[in-house]
Amino acid sequence: MKFSRLLDAARRHGASDIHVVSSSPPAFRVDGEIILADLPPLGPTEIETLVNSIITQSQRDILERERELCFSLIDESQQRCRVSIYYSGGRVELAVRVCQEDIGSLDQLHLPPFVDTIPWLTSGLALVTGPTGMGKTTTMNFIIDRINSQRRAKIVTIEDPVEFTHHHKRSLVIQQEVHTDTLSFGRALIHALRQDPDVIAIGEMRDLETMRTALTAAETGHLVLATLHTPDATQTIERIISVFPAYQQEQVRYQCANTLKAVVAQKLLPRAGGPGRVLACEILNVNTAARSIIREGATHKLYSVLQTGLNQSMNTMDAALLDLYLKGDITYDTALNNATHPSFIEHRTSTGKSTPA
After folding, report:
1. What sections of the chain are H helices per DSSP?
2. Which 3 state secondary structure label does DSSP give 251?
3. Dihedral sign from CA coordinates of 240, 245, 247, 251
4. Nearest Cα to 77, choosing from 92, 61, 98, 97?
5. Which sign, positive or negative, has the C-alpha torsion 270, 137, 183, 47?
6. What pLDDT does 357 receive?
7. What residues contact 146, with CB distance under 8 A and at least 6 apart?
């Protein structure tokens, strides 16, 4: 089977991902759910042939040495995808993220208006968080595109791999891919600081070295954008601090308090009664109260800041879920199962204060 045939079929189904597993038909992820494609099963030899058709000899060497490989690929129709190759039971398999050609507008992505204020930040740290497959990369690239369209700046992105291609508009955009243009996030970030950037975008803050350098860059007058696999604002800050050794954590708390400007935590949820998914966002717009709480190490108090910060564009995930349920966009069970505090949803829908649309 040709790789291009797989991609064409996935795009016709509106799939976000392709999964090629031995002795099974290829599977597509559509609206968050796995469905088997109407294609013949692929055996180990066929998958090996498929993989060899899309990788170079140097990539083959990395795959055989490290037993895994992740890279971006531009297909015959000049569209980009992200390929992750791995071994299972000694047999090679792969997962493919089908990248979108267009990023989309704020309204098309159903992002809260607060996100459109982040491109105008000139320094500090802004984070987009959430589990895998929740649209973090799309949101970060929306912010990059807005900066590119509206500001005269130099933007350096460090990604593993590149998913969206940005062309120079009002800004210069330098996109670096780990393992292709640089050896690691940490090394690339250190060198990015020497390239006279205004904005640095990090595909994922995944280790101590990257987090340390990102905080330093945010302290020294750069706007740093990054993603993290954390479900909400409170756990995002706790995750950053906990990565550092205990003797450095007080200093890191102060760095976070001084540099963090925003956390946007995302969940994509199945739409009630129809195809597609809807976006729920928790928003932390870091204000004086939030900074004091972070410095004190009392991150459990941040929830009350989110609850009382509506006039500063803040929102809890629970409130976002309740709003989507009341609009009829998601079911009650979806709201309840994704809530941080399910009792909030139960109370607000059982007392008569709120009723579904």
Report:
1. 3-12, 44-52, 57-66, 106-109, 136-150, 185-192, 208-219, 233-243, 249-259, 288-296, 302-308, 317-326, 332-338, 342-350
2. helix
3. negative
4. 98
5. positive
6. 47
7. 116, 119
pLDDT per residue as tens digits for the range 185-201: 888 888 898 999 999 99
- In a 3-state reduction of DSSP, which class is residue 52? helix
How high is the pLDDT of residue 182? 84
Place of tokens 């895994």: 68
d(CA 80, CA 87): 23
CB atoms within 10 A of CB 215: 22
The strand pair at 199-202 and 154-159 is best described as parallel
| Domains of the chain, first to last | 3-98 (3.30.450.90), 106-315 (3.40.50.300)
List alpha helices for 13-95, DSSP H.
44-52, 57-66
Give the residue among 302, 353, 305, 307 at the shortest CA–CA distance from 326: 353
The span from the CA of 272 to the CA of 270, in Å, is 6
Q: What is the pTM of this model?
A: 0.85
Distance of alpha carbon 326 from alpha carbon 348, whole angstroms: 10
CA angle 230, 235, 239 (to 5 degrees): 80
**SS3 assignment, position 315:** strand
Task: State the Cα–Cα distance between residues 151 and 234, nearest whole angstrom.
Answer: 31
User: Tokens at residue 25, please?
Assistant: 């038909």
Q: Is 59 exposed, middle or buried (0-12, 13-18, 19+ CB in 10 A)?
A: middle
> What's the helix, strand, coil split of the chain in %, to 5?
45, 25, 30
CB neighbours of residue 273 within 10 Å: 9
Tell me the pLDDT tens digit for each residue of 16-31.
999 999 989 999 999 8
Structure tokens at 15: 């799939």
